Amino acid sequence: MRITICAVGRLRRGPELALIQDYCDRFDKTGRSMGLGPISFIEVEDKKNIGMSAEAELLERAIPKGSLIVTMDERGRTVSSPEFADQLARWRDNGAPDCSFIIGGADGIDPSLRAKADFSISFGQMVWPHMLVRVMLSEQLYRAATILGNGPYHRA
């Protein structure tokens, strides 16, 4: 199952990008034997600054056809790392070819796109900068792959 992270905004060079690349490389290596990956990133930008509805249109165009849609949203479910790993495995085992994680911009994800989501995940009640959500999601994907592969990274 391929993973696509569709996000609003461009990530510039710096520590966030380095962390994301590291976790994605680790995920790709760990997940390959389990039918997970590779991870790809698609960044969109509302250059006309129209707002969430324009971002939603750009994000929708970025989502691969037939992909599961998972929004990263403060209204979503808070799941543990093992629960997240199990959910990824269920989607993979049910034959989903793609899973797209959607990260909105500063104002979040437009309600029209949220309504199309198959699943929604929250990293807690706090609001996180969307650039950090990319790092946290990348790490959790890698962690999920190690959990599914019984690797030593995740210590419960």
Low-confidence stretches: none
Task: Please trace the helix and strand order, writing H or E for each element.
Answer: EHEHEHEHEH
Tell me the Rg in angstroms.
15 Å
Secondary-structure arrangement, i.e. CATH architecture: 3-Layer(aba) Sandwich
Number of strands: 5
Approximate strand percentage: 15-25%
Helical percentage: 40-55%
Task: Give me the side-by-side strand order of the main sheet.
Answer: 2-1-4-3-5
* Overall shape: globular
Average pLDDT taken over every residue: 94
CATH topology: Alpha/beta knot
Largest sheet: 5 strands, parallel
Structural class: alpha/beta
The overall number of domains is: 1
CATH class: Alpha Beta
The CATH superfamily name is SPOUT methyltransferase, trefoil knot domain
Number of distinct helices: 5
How far apart lie the N and C ends?
25 Å
The protein's oligomeric status is single chain
How would you briefly describe this protein structure?
The protein is of the alpha/beta class. It is 41% helix and 21% strand.
Q: Key features?
A:
156 residues, alpha/beta, Alpha/beta knot, five-stranded parallel sheet, globular
Lay out the secondary structure.
Elements: E1 2-8, H1 15-31, E2 39-44, H2 52-62, E3 68-77, H3 81-93, E4 98-103, H4 111-114, E5 119-121, H5 130-148
Parallel strand pairs: 1-2, 1-4, 3-4, 3-5
Helix pairs in contact: 1-5, 3-5
Describe the structure.
The chain has five helices and five strands; from the N terminus they run βαβαβαβαβα. The chain has 156 residues and is α/β, with parallel strands linked by helices. The protein has a single domain (2-148), classed as 3-Layer(aba) Sandwich (Alpha/beta knot), CATH 3.40.1280.10. Strands 2-1-4-3-5 form a five-stranded parallel β-sheet. It is globular, with a radius of gyration of 15 Å.
